[in-house]
Amino acid sequence: xxxxxxxxxxxxxxxxxxxxxxxxxxxxxxxxxxxxxxxxxxxxxxxxxxxxxxxxxxxxxxxxxxxxxxxxxxxxxxxxxxxxxxxxxxxxxxxxxxxxxxxxxxxxxxxxxxxxxxxxxxxxxxxxxxxxxxxxxxxxxxxxxxxxxxxxxxxxxxxxxxxxxxxxxxxxxxxxxxxxxxxxxxxxxxxxxxxxxxxxxxxxxxxxxxxxxxxxxxxxxxxxxxxxxxxxxxxxxxxxxxxxxxxxxxxxxxxxxxxxxxxxxxxxxxxxxxxxxxxxxxxxxxxxxxxxxxxxxxxxxxxxxxxxxxxxxxxxxxxxxxxxxxxxxxxxxxxxxxxxxxxxxxxxxxxxxxxxxxxxxxxxxxxxxxxxxxxxxxxxxxxxxxxxxxxxxxxxxxxxxxxxxxxxxxxxxxxxxxxxxxxxxxxxxxxxxxxxxxxxxxxxxxxxxxxxxxxxxxxxxxxxxxxxx
Length: 469
Known about the structure:
By secondary structure, this protein is an alpha+beta fold.
């Protein structure tokens, strides 16, 4: 090992030791941020959102970053740069300081904005709204930077920050802000801490995010609800029409029948498939937690392939007729459904929306009309794991946790990742330390204390590894 490598390792060891010694103070700083009720969806909390942005900007300024709070048409952004950035890769860390509403409040065991360390079934947890999504995750990275600065006076690579305050309310200001500030924010690689672990002891790098297409379909038949005794059998029933249309969207093997739906879907790379198989994920363990037992997706694919790397078309809600207490014998005037498609590979959400509408109209009988409400769309994202930065980060995570880090997919969508690629032309390294039982968006949200502590240690290692890579 070269003298420079030995010195580098010694520095990292000192940074990790500093993080361990500073854990109580780090938790206290996180508690300060958690006490701010920065609920972005409710205008009554706009002041708290501004307070959270100001707090983060001050904290980064105290660490030597040039930080500012930038106004938007909604809640402000926080942008910071290191004026003493070293040569080498330049990374942008993204997080969000806004949180979900706390309703129903009566299901919380304590004030959601009065954080506390509690004993949990698997160890100590930090209990508060935003503890896991995303304030605790965000602060793991800030604490890693704080430790590097405290020990060495600098950072081993160039870093900038972007903290958003509208992620939980659809990010209405984000795209315009990225477009207006593209020259300032475009760097080599984005770092995002808004994901989770694969298992309690297995860190993960999310490299595949499914895209999304949402569509609402409204079938109208008669011009009013009808008495089923007087019109039943003779009048067209929009619920029956809708049921027939929906039933034809899947075959007996769970495949979507829309023409062209699978255009752009590619096979999983052999190396990734082998790694996923080696995880030995038990379908019963995943489905059993929600009272199910048999995977219902496309036959011939494992449960993690069905969730991470295969496209879906799902019905998220159906409405029509009388659904209140008791019984009312009517033929409804309208029936509607909300449909979401999770997309992979190079599937085109606009083409799929057009194919869905064509399917509906091809099966629409006389005396019925259809209306649509679009609910957004976005393509899937696949990260280039052949980029040396990804393998460097995977090695760094594996050094911190008992189990080696895995490349994983995500059944959900993280829009910021697509925006970074489309607007700024950069990929994202998605690393998070959430656990499946963190109660995201639910009462009694928590973040494991070891997720916070080992998350900061992990980022310290990743920063060092990226600098060397």
